Fold this sequence. Notes:
By secondary structure, this protein is mostly helical. It has one domain. It is 70% helix and 0% strand. The protein has twelve helices and no strands. It has helices at residues 25-48, 54-76, 87-103, 109-130, 137-155, 163-182, 189-213, 220-244, 250-256, 260-271, 278-294, 305-311. Helix 4 (109-130) packs antiparallel against helix 5 (137-155), helix 4 (109-130) packs across helix 6 and helix 4 (109-130) runs antiparallel to helix 9 (250-256). The protein is globular, with a radius of gyration of 20 Å. The chain starts with 24 loop residues before the first helix and ends with a helix.
Amino acid sequence: xxxxxxxxxxxxxxxxxxxxxxQRPAVLLxxxxxxxxxxxxxxxxxxxxxxxxAGMLSAVRFVAGALALxxxxxxxxxxxxxxxxxxxxxxxxxxxxxCISYGYVHIGxxxxxxxxxxxxxxxxxxxxxxxxxxxxxxxxxxxVTALLGIGxxxxxxxxGVTVLGVVLLGIAGVAWGCYTIAGRTGGDPGAATTGNxxxxxxxxxxxxxxxxxxxxxxxxxxxxxxxAMGAGTTALAYVAWYACQAGLSGTAAGSVQLAIPxxxxxxxxxxxxxxxSPTLVLAAGLVAGGMSLGLGPRLSWPRRRSRQxxxxx
Length: 313
């Protein structure tokens, strides 16, 4: 009989029995981070070219995402989880979408990014502390280092910062943190995310129709980008993000997201023609070093239960 020990799971949060999607967080997490960065790049492109009103972008994005997830459920025989349990996550998701869309009207992209991710991390750290989970000193130092990198990246911008912008992006960060926490409560990530998106889409559709009727700025190219982002790098990435919550503590979930501003900036240099500056290189180094210090060798993903069972036969 094989008595091989299972490696420790420092960051694994207590939760529901594993389902197939939850068994592959190490594969899903890079996809999530790249998708979130892609969403930022597409949003930046739409805004800088004046292709779609910010509110309309949010509505179209999540309606398209809901339709894509419903189609996927129909093709795979899945059963969307639509009920009272979807109301809370849909509320947080909608609050995030509205606040981040209009918040960037009142604050520069770089400064807003810092406020947003600092708020996300703070929300998840507080959640872990309320649950009695300790933040190791090494992780705390790593998180402060990574936030310093984002702060340096934000400081290079000459874009305006207003109190309203800071408040809106702060609320958006707290809402996204709460949406992330909701994903830790269990169940099938695909079914739960589909339910959340459907509830939000029901609320967003009338707002989108009303906005179009009252003359909000809309272009065909903007709509196409919003639909593509909603159906692809939003819907599928959000399912994957919920699946990743089975293998991350709240603090770890906040820490890994600090890579997104750097990925977005690198993507803007490569795809949008923005300048590669020494500041970006320094910020990227600090964020990478901070994440490595805080997560690095201490982050281990849960093994598949099927493999564990095979090992005991």
